[in-house]
Each structure stands twice: as C-alpha cells, then as structure tokens.
TrEMBL record:
Coiled coil feature spans: none
GO biological process, one term: intra-Golgi vesicle-mediated transport
Protein's recorded name: Trafficking protein particle complex subunit
Gene3D superfamilies noted in UniProt: Trafficking protein particle complex subunit 3
UniProt family annotation: Belongs to the TRAPP small subunits family. BET3 subfamily.
Assembly and oligomerization: Homodimer. Component of the multisubunit TRAPP (transport protein particle) complex, which includes at least TRAPPC2, TRAPPC2L, TRAPPC3, TRAPPC3L, TRAPPC4, TRAPPC5, TRAPPC8, TRAPPC9, TRAPPC10, TRAPPC11 and TRAPPC12.
InterPro entries: Bet3 (IPR016721), NO_sig/Golgi_transp_ligand-bd (IPR024096), TRAPP_component (IPR007194)
Keyword entries, A-Z: Endoplasmic reticulum, ER-Golgi transport, Golgi apparatus, Lipoprotein, Palmitate, Transport
Length: 181
C-alpha cells in the first residue's frame, strides 16, 4: 500500500526535527566525553564523513542529477538540491577565487541550531555543526572529488552569517568531460 503524496512533507519535517534534537544530544554528549573542542570537532567531522559516503548513493538515486562539468555546477547542486532535499534550506553560493575552485555556502538559516542559543560555556572553539563539513567532504570523495570543507563563519560564534567554505583540491580535467563529436 503506497503512502499518499500529500503526507510526504509531513514525514520529512518530523524526521528533520528528530534529527536536529538528536544531533543536539549527540554534541552535548561529545562535549562531556572530550575535554578539547578540537577532539569534538574532529569526531563530528569523522562521523559526518561516514554519513556522506553513504548518503551520496541515496542522493544520486533520488535527485536524478546528471554529470556536472564544473565545480560551480557541483556547488549549485549541493546548495539547490542536496541542502533542500535533506535540510529544507537553500544556501546562497559565492565563488571565492579566479581559479573557480573555492566556494562558500552561506546559510541564512541553519536547521541544526534551531534549538541552540549559544555554544556551551567554555567551548568557544567548538564547531557545533562540523558534521555538515564531514558529510559534504565524504559525499564529494565518493564521486572522486577531493575537497577541503570547513566552517569559515558561524552565527553561534557571533558572526553575522554561517558560512561553509569548500575548496576543491585537484583541478578538474576539462578534456575528460568533453563530448566526442
């Protein structure tokens, strides 16, 4: 028996809210388990990486996106399709260099911090949403794209925006993607 189409967004919202609440509890537990913020950040990145390596298959199957021919196309797919599909937001994209291999995703709204007002006391270097960086890095690696993904700005740390920086580490071979005539 199939589910009515009109009920899917409701299930998606419930799953997102559950994820956000569970994520907050996870970060709180990691802060209890690890004294250093760097250890918590590293653990969140590692956990996100594992999620990203598995999530990319679901994303490719559900989104029906085609092959991308440039880094800017890849970033647009991440922002407009992946973030919308899994977190219900669409970050804006900026290119940060003339080589067109460094980009920023600007999140006007970050669902992972919906129930968080500030970082825990004494945790000023905690990167609360570092899981997102690991997810992006893991997913990109599974499609053979090495990237450095880091938080550049974070509203939880008093910045005006939340910004994720993505730097592709290898120049894409444009000849590889040209169509044969």
């Amino acid at each position: 028996m199939s589910r009515p189409a009109h009920r899917r967004p409701e299930y998606h919202k419930i799953n997102k809210d559950l994820f956000v609440l569970t994520y907050g509890a996870l970060v709180a537990q990691l802060c209890k388990d690890y004294e250093k913020d760097e250890d918590v950040n590293q653990y969140l990145d590692k956990m996100g990486y594992g999620i990203g390596t598995r999530l990319v298959e679901d994303f490719l199957a559900r989104s029906c996106v085609g092959r991308c021919h440039s880094y800017s196309e890849i970033i647009d797919i991440i922002a407009q399709v992946a973030f919308k599909m899994y977190l219900g937001i669409t970050p804006s994209v900026t290119c940060n260099n003339s080589s067109k291999n460094e980009f920023s995703l600007i999140l006007d709204k970050n669902p992972l911090v919906e129930f968080v007002e500030e970082l825990p006391a004494g945790r000023s270097s905690l990167c609360y949403c570092n899981l997102l960086c690991g997810i992006i890095r893991g997913a990109l690696e599974m499609v053979h794209l090495a990237a450095d993904v880091t938080f550049l700005q974070d509203r939880l740390k008093g910045d005006s925006v939340t910004e994720i920086g993505i730097t592709f580490l290898k120049k894409q071979d444009e000849k590889k993607y040209r169509r044969k005539k």
